[in-house]
Structure formats: C-alpha cells, structure tokens
Design brief:
The protein is built from eight helices and nine strands. Helix 1 links the parallel strand 1 and strand 2. The radius of gyration is 17 Å and the shape is globular. By secondary structure, it is of the alpha/beta class. Helix 6 runs parallel beside helix 8.
Length: 235
C-alpha cells in the first residue's frame, strides 16, 4: 500500500549512478530550498564509486535507497514509489537548483488548483574543474532558456499518477516522452519565468555518453505522433 500523501510536502527524487563527484552539491541544493517542507530521496542505481558513502554522510536528512543498475527511468520510478509528497520534483545528481525554486513553483500550484505542472527556466554551466579545458565535443546553449527538463519542473503527484511513470524502454528521452503523454491527457502546465535549474556540463553527461540517444528520441517523437493520430500504443 502506498504511503499517505503529506500536504505541501515536496518529494525530491534524485537518481544517482556513479555521481560521487557532484552528488553532495546536488543534495545541498535540494536541502537548501526556501520551501520548508522537503524530503530528498536519493536512489543509488547500482553505483560502483563512492556515491553511497556521500549519501550516507547526510544521515536522516535524506532518504537513501540502493538498487541494481537498470537506468534512470527505473531509478526515478523507484523513488516515486517511496515518495510521500503532494508534489514531485526531480533533480539529477550532477545539477543544481536556485534556492527559491520549490517555493515559487509550489506557490503557483497552490494558487491554481487546475494546474498540474509548473515549468521554469534553465541555464547551463561548465563544471568548474573543466573551465578552459573543455574540448569541442561539449556543445551547449549559453544563457537562460525555457526548458522542459526533469529538474526544471514541479508536478502535482495526483497528475503524475494519472499519466503514469517513466518509460523504462527508453535510455534517453524518457522525460520528453512523459511530457508528451501528459499533454495528450490534458495536464495543464504553465511556464514560469526565472532560472530554477542550473545544468552542469561535464565530460560524463548522459547525453554525451549515450550513442543510442538519437534512436530513443526518434521513438519518442513517433509515439507522440501516433497518439495524435489515435493509434494504440505498443504494449
């Protein structure tokens, strides 16, 4: 049986796979929010580095769970199963939030009960240890952008449950797929101006390492087009 939902609580789901280098900064970013009601759930997805030791160092300030490595979608879904919050937020173990991110987005959801999701802006930054040494493989958009990224949204738990979890068939593009499914079900969202997510650019970014990412993104686009045409989704 699922745990009872706690009003105003934000459950922060943080998947981590070999994220030792940046994990503490991400956890601090979540714990340092101006919104007072936060639970941080770190899902260690079979890390082989020192990530577990970093997470354990926070004691009962966070909730930490381990599982066999199966990918980011499965890790997020696992964390959601344990979440008790009225709202769901997602922060990758190498990214950062602005400290008022949750406060601003919770306020928007509370002001309009018909809203299912609030989306903020993102800025990307080169991880400090790479400044001046980044090679040409690392390309990114500078400045503030409106981005539908896991770390830039806050989702009402009831609406997330209505849409369903992240597809474990996709190694990349799983959030794009979820957003598309949410749109097809009429989940109401709003774009709120202001940077809420700082996405770290480093040499082990998921998108740089996944050679099959383009194939997964094409699957997401095809599934979205099929939904618009009323075709049944594959099971």
């Amino acid at each position: 049986m699922a745990a009872p939902v706690i009003p105003r609580l934000v459950s922060v789901i943080m998947p981590c796979y070999n994220g030792e280098r940046y994990l503490a900064a991400a956890i601090d970013s979540a714990l340092g929010q101006t919104h007072p009601h936060v639970e941080v759930i770190v899902v260690d997805d079979g890390s082989t580095d020192g990530s577990p030791s970093v997470a354990e160092g926070y004691g009962d300030r966070i909730r930490w769970t381990q599982r066999d490595h199966s990918g980011i979608s499965g890790a997020r879904n696992h964390g959601i199963e344990q979440a008790r919050g009225e709202f769901l937020a997602f922060l990758d173990a190498d990214d950062l939030w602005s400290n008022a991110k949750l406060e601003r987005q919770v306020s928007a959801l509370e002001a309009d009960p018909s809203l299912g999701m609030v989306i903020g802006d993102m800025e990307q930054f080169v991880s400090p240890e790479l400044v001046g040494t980044v090679d040409q493989r690392v390309a990114f958009v500078e400045g503030t952008v409106a981005a539908r990224m896991p770390g830039s949204v806050l989702i009402r738990r009831s609406e997330f449950d209505r849409v369903g979890g992240f597809s474990t068939d996709l190694a990349s593009g799983e959030f794009m797929d979820w957003i598309s499914r949410a749109g097809s079900l009429g989940v109401k969202s709003v774009q709120q101006p202001g940077v809420v997510l700082r996405r770290r650019i480093h040499l082990t970014n998921h998108g740089l390492l996944r050679k099959d990412a383009q194939s997964d993104y094409l699957k997401v686009v095809k599934a979205a087009l099929d939904r618009r045409r009323g075709k049944p989704e594959p099971r």
